Amino acid sequence: MERVLAEAGRALAAAGLVTAFGHVSARVAGDRLLMTPPVPLGTLGPDAPYTEVALGAAVEALPEGTPREAWIHVEIARARPGVGAICRAQPPTATALASAGVPIVPLHGQGAFLGPRVPVFDDAVLVRDRERGRTLAACLGDAPALVMRGNGAVTVGATVGEAVALMWVLEASARMNATAAAAGTPVPITPAEQEAWLAVRAELCGRIWSYLRESS
User: Fold this and answer.
1) What is the b/e burial string over 194-211, where b = at least 16 CB atoms within 10 angstroms of the residue's CB?
2) Residue 72: which residues within 8 A CB-CB, separation 6 or more?
3) Is 66 left (phi over 0), alpha (psi -120 to 50) or beta?
4) CB 167 within 8 A of CB 79
5) Tell me: the pLDDT tens digits for 91-101?
6) Rg of the Cα trace of the chain?
7) pLDDT in tens, 26-40
8) End-to-end CA distance of the chain
C-alpha cells in the first residue's frame, strides 16, 4: 500500500493538483488508515514515514508525524465505512469556483462521476480538530467529492486510484464549468445521461488512474 500511496502523491503533483500541501490515505483495516506524511506529495517514495491512524471514537490525538488535517480522513472514514481511500488536494479552478459561488455541475460525461452538484464546505479555517472534521464529513454526506471554500478539495473512492482519479475529474469539470459560465448559462447533462455515465465510473476511473501514473 505504501507504493500505491507514493504513486498517488507523484501523480497528483505531476497533474498540478498539489504543491507543498496535500495528503492521501488508504483504509488498511476496518479501524485504521495508512496516511501520507506531511511532506510535498511529489517527493514520496515507498519508504517514506507513512503513519497508521486509528479510527476509534475514543481517539483524542493524532499520531506524531501525521498531517494536522488528518481529522478530515478520520471522520470521513468513520462516517463512510465503504470508503477505501481519501484524497486531499488543492485543485486551483475548483477552489476558485467555490469562492466565486459558481456550482460545479456535470456538463460532460465524466463530470457525472461527481454527482449532480459538488457540495461546498463553507468554512475556510484549516480542519485541524475532530469537531470540524465531523462537520466536513457531514457536509460531504454520500457524495464522492467536496470543495472547501478557500482551502482546496477532498475526494473519496473505493481505492486510492479512484480517489485520485476523481480529484483529476473534479478539476477538469471545474475548468469546464468556469468556461461555460463565462460564455453563457451552463446546462448540465440530463439525469438519465448522468446515470449512464455513473454505470461506468469504476472502469473509466481505472483508466484515468493508469494515465496519471504513467504521466507522473
Assistant:
1) beebbeebeeebeebbee
2) 86, 88, 127, 133, 136, 137, 154
3) beta
4) no
5) 999 999 999 99
6) 16
7) 999 889 999 999 999
8) 18
- For residues 173 and 93, give the distance between their C-alpha atoms in angstroms, rounded to a whole number: 9
On whether the CB atoms of residues 17 and 167 are closer than 8 A, the answer is: yes
pLDDT, position 60: 79
Pairing of strands 145-148, 120-121: parallel
Q: Which residues pair with 89 in a beta bridge?
A: 153
Is the pTM higher than 0.90? yes
The rounded distance, in Å, linking the Cα atoms of 71 and 126 is: 10
Length, in residues, of the chain: 216
DSSP state at residue 180: H
Residues 31, 56 contacting (CB under 8 angstroms)? yes
- Give the Å distances, CA to CA, from 94 to 35, 85, 191: 24, 20, 22
> What sign has the CA pseudo-torsion 85, 91, 96, 101?
negative
CA 118/CA 141 separation, integer angstroms: 11
Taken in order 39, 141, 145, 126, the sign of the CA dihedral is negative
Alpha-carbon span 129 to 30, nearest angstrom: 22
